[in-house]
Design a protein that fits this description.
This protein has about 240 residues and is of the alpha+beta class. It has helices at about 15-25, 70-90, 165-185, 185-195, and strands at about 5-10, 30-35, 55-60, 95, 100-105, 105-120, 125-135, 205, 210-220, 225-230, 235-240, 240-244. The longest helix is centred in the C-terminal third of the chain and has 22 residues, at about 165-185. The structure holds biotin. The site of biotin (BTN) has 21 residues, from helix 1, strand 3, strand 6 and strand 7.
Length: about 240
């Protein structure tokens, strides 16, 4: 991974840049990184705060030969890789919140956005966008995010990290898990995700635009869907939601 690295000081969104490059046949593992994004994109059409100097914003083009329905597996894979990459480089121990928020002490320190380009039955490219809050001070977050967001430095008594070290560690761990996935399939990734995730094995509330589902989070399926067992025993499949 990252054999081909495109670094830009400022872009609208590395995700958009990666989409353009993926359309031009750039190879599996191409990474687009930036110091600052004008229009960082989060999940569910939310903005992603991406100022200069504080974090690292990058998108990776992967080309696994899989059916489109399995693309969410790569999101869960990325969550495992980001979590382990952060631990290896910093000694901090983040936890995952379904599907792919990376939390330290219950506050979000990294987010992952997965998009794809695909034919009806084959994936052409999966584009994994990773936003890492590394050296933010609390005032670097807008007031409405200050109780929900954090950075590695804030959880490390304010001591800053080298952004390149954290990024290299995350890419190494992505490469490790991606190779394992290509050779052995999703099983090991899913087991590791379940170990690192706080969402599974407890009571949760999944809120989406359409409805709210409450119950016991039993686990995830092979296509990355969260299974919630409701009080009446029925199992609900959650494809996209926010978890309380
Ligand atoms: C989330 O909502 O949690 C996902 C956030 C993803 C942000 C990253 S930063 C790099 C890449 N470029 C974007 O515009 N978004 C992703």
């Amino acid at each position: 991974l990252g054999q081909k690295l495109v670094y830009k000081e400022e872009v609208s969104s590395t995700q958009e840049e990666a989409h353009k490059l993926a359309g031009k046949n750039e190879p599996d593992g191409t990474v687009v990184a930036a110091d600052k994004q004008f229009q960082g994109k989060g999940r569910l059409d939310r903005p992603w705060v991406s100022a200069s100097g504080t974090g690292l914003w990058f998108s990776i083009i992967l080309r696994p030969d899989i059916r489109p329905q399995y693309a969410p597996q790569l999101t869960l894979l990325a969550a495992v890789a980001v979590t382990e990459g952060i631990t290896n480089a910093s000694g901090l121990h983040p936890r995952i919140k379904w599907p792919n928020d990376i939390l330290l002490n219950g506050k979000k320190t990294a987010g992952i956005l997965t998009e794809m380009q695909s034919d009806p039955d084959r994936v052409q490219a999966v584009i994994i966008g990773i936003g890492l809050n590394i050296n933010h001070k609390i005032d670097d977050f807008p007031p409405e995010l200050q109780s929900k967001a954090t950075s590695l430095a804030l959880e490390n008594k304010g001591t800053a990290f080298h952004r390149a070290d954290i990024t290299a560690s995350v890419l190494r761990s992505l490469e490790y898990w991606y190779e394992m996935y290509l050779t052995d399939g999703f099983g090991a990734v899913r087991r590791r995700w379940e170990e690192l995730a706080d969402t599974v094995g407890g009571h949760v509330r999944a809120v989406s635009r359409l409805k709210t589902v409450e119950g016991y989070a039993e686990g995830i399926t092979d296509d990355g869907v969260l299974l919630i067992k409701q009080e009446d025993g029925t199992i609900e499949k959650i494809y996209s939601a926010d978890i309380d």
